[in-house]
Amino acid sequence: MFPRLAALLFAALALAPAFAQPGTTRLVVSFTPGGPVDAVARTLAEQLGKELGRTVVVDNKPGANGAIGAIDVARAEPDGHTLWITSVGAAAINPSLYNKLGYDMKRDFAPVSLVVNNVELLVVNPSNPAKDAAEFVASAKGAGKSRAMASSGIGSIPHLAIEQLLDASGATLLHVPYKGAAPAITDLMGGQVDGFFGDVPGLIGHVQSGRLKALGIASPKRHPALPDVKTLEEQGLRGVDTNNWYAIFAPAKTPPAVVDAVNKAIRQALSNAAVRDKLAKSGAEPAPSSPAELASLLQRDLDKWAALIRAKHIKAE
């Protein structure tokens, strides 16, 4: 026991000077600048750089539903100087949507830390008479009572939330996929569709301003920024549990001591009051984890979304 502990300590000390050398760490974002993952990355980057003693540069590599950024990181040197921040889609949904993905989450990446939780919120136009999700689905039951539900695309978290709601409610819901959340929200405000599931950070401003009405949270617990909005489970709609989490991964074969060092820096960055406050105000919930906890979360979601995608015969466009 003690010799093994000493060996691990020696390895960590040997790696520390090289890792702490001034330089640049790339934080790769698989999406365009200005999007939600990019916003979290930029909120985190400066403080993370201070904790690491290096400059952290956000490097946007969008395309192929997250695959271009993922492959870039998978091929990088496993030295902790290239990191990937991704949403759940590229990490745990894509593997079941695409036959040829170009990367494998277990083979190509080392989990480092969860960063934030982004649960889904069911919203409708303020003119909709439903007071909550239970009333909304009740209005979508029976002949001629279908409701059009927008999503940000086939296989997206909002789409999968709709599928879960179908199973939980028995309502008649028509899935209308859009190319992104923005046009779906615009059409919801315009009355072209009846409802939409979206990440809290992307919807909280519209809810607070009264442009949209929140009916329920697709999570086991209420959201701290929307404490009066009941969960779907509280409303008798069980099994609608969607979390578009963001997490950081490193290339596979990154030494455990380096992974632990980056994990510690992420934890410290997320404990910074200014960082936490900015994330919380946006509707994201800071949620650092251990590498092992992230690995377990990834496996649970790989299994959960694979089962739903198979059962619903969902195919990527």
Molecular structure report:
By secondary structure, the protein is α/β, with parallel strands linked by helices. It has two domains: 2-118 and 243-312, Bordetella uptake gene, domain 1 (D-Maltodextrin-Binding Protein, domain 2), CATH 3.40.190.150; 120-235, Periplasmic binding protein-like II (D-Maltodextrin-Binding Protein, domain 2), CATH 3.40.190.10. The chain is built from twelve helices and eleven strands. The protein has helices spanning 2-19, 36-52, 67-74, 88-97, 105-108, 133-138, 157-169, 181-190, 200-209, 256-271, 273-282, 291-312, and strands spanning 24-29, 55-60, 82-87, 109-117, 120-124, 147-151, 173-177, 195-199, 213-218, 246-251, 285-286. The strands form two sheets. It has a six-stranded mixed beta sheet with strand order 2-1-3-10-4-11, with helices on both faces. A five-stranded mixed beta sheet has the order 7-6-8-5-9, sandwiched between helices. Helix 2 crosses helix 10 (256-271) and helix 4 crosses helix 12. The longest helix is centred in the last third of the chain and has 22 residues, at 291-312. The radius of gyration is 21 Å and the shape is globular. Mean pLDDT is 92; it is low at 5-18.
